[in-house]
């Protein structure tokens, strides 16, 4: 039996009369990069939100490391090591890159940021060093004191990745990592994702860009209109006529 980290079982979710997820089943294997692709409106973001607890399925379950996480709050699921990055920019533009990477570590340690003065926390030497190592890992060490607002799109991705990785995820969910990017930034992001892939972390990538998916994924699940129409290796998926049809018809 494969070592499955995350199980999505018989999940349904409707918005009014619209079935966004229609009996979705998914098994994510440890150490693998699993892509979920599909045309716009297929239900990819809905599925991701059901995994991270931003929405609760109408029926069905999500199991992480053997425990049901269905209906848990997003922060509870995050504490178990399920970390999502991208889609909406979640960096702090007025802070330096280093401070940005320190925040997830401090937030975890402090439980909450609300009642603590930022400035003092940023002086924590151990956290600074940990954040600096992470910036080195993603190649941003020379810009550690720059304001995050001034970064290029590709470098913002790198920063967001550092903010995710510094949480030591057990499962990393990447939501459209190359959305809206130039070819140059897309290629840089693919390089970054390849580096992360080499660490053996378990990852789910939600992606629209086929080029990105086929160069990174071990397995691919194709969603169309809330239903899984195909699942397999990149080669299996590439040759599947249903996939062609969903993309061309969608
Ligand atoms: P994808 O990420 O694959 O583009 P989504 O999961 O965002 O697709 O959306 C799937 C379908 O559900 C779409 O038809 C979308 O309009 C609809 N939908 C998504 N979220 C909501 C919501 N909060 N309320 C109503 N409809 C929604
Ligand atoms: Mg989406």
Automatic annotation (TrEMBL):
GO terms for cellular component: plasma membrane. InterPro entries: AAA+_ATPase, ABC_AA/LPS_Transport, ABC_transporter-like_ATP-bd, BCA_ABC_TP_C, P-loop_NTPase. Keywords: ATP-binding, Nucleotide-binding, Transport. CDD domains: ABC_Mj1267_LivG_branched (cd03219). The lineage of its organism: Bacteria, Pseudomonadati, Pseudomonadota, Alphaproteobacteria, Rhodospirillales. It comes from Pararhodospirillum photometricum DSM 122. This is ABC transporter ATP-binding protein. Residues 6-250 form the ABC transporter domain. GO terms for molecular function: ATP binding; ATP hydrolysis activity.
């Amino acid at each position: 039996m494969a070592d499955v980290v995350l199980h999505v079982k018989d999940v349904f979710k409707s918005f009014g009369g619209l079935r966004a997820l229609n009996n979705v089943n998914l098994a994510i294997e440890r150490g693998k990069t699993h892509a979920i692709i599909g045309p716009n409106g297929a239900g990819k973001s809905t599925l991701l939100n059901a995994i991270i607890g931003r929405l609760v399925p109408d029926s069905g379950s999500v199991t992480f490391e053997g425990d049901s996480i269905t209906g848990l709050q997003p922060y509870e699921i995050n504490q178990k090591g399920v970390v999502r990055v991208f889609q909406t920019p979640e960096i702090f533009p007025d802070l330096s890159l280093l401070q940005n990477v320190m925040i997830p570590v401090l937030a975890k340690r402090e439980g909450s940021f609300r009642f603590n003065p930022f400035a003092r926390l940023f002086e924590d030497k151990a956290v600074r060093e940990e954040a600096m190592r992470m910036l080195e890992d993603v190649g941003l060490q020379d810009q550690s004191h720059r304001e995050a607002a001034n970064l290029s799109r590709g470098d913002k991705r790198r920063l967001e990745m550092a903010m995710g990785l510094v949480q030591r995820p057990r499962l990393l969910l990447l939501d459209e990592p190359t959305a809206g990017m130039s070819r140059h930034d897309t290629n840089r992001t693919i390089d970054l994702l390849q580096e992360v892939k080499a660490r053996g972390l378990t990852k789910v990538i939600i992606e629209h860009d086929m080029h990105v998916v086929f160069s990174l994924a071990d397995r691919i699940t194709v969603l169309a209109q809330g239903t899984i129409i195909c699942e397999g290796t990149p080669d299996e998926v590439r040759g599947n006529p249903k996939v062609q049809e969903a993309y061309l018809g969608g």
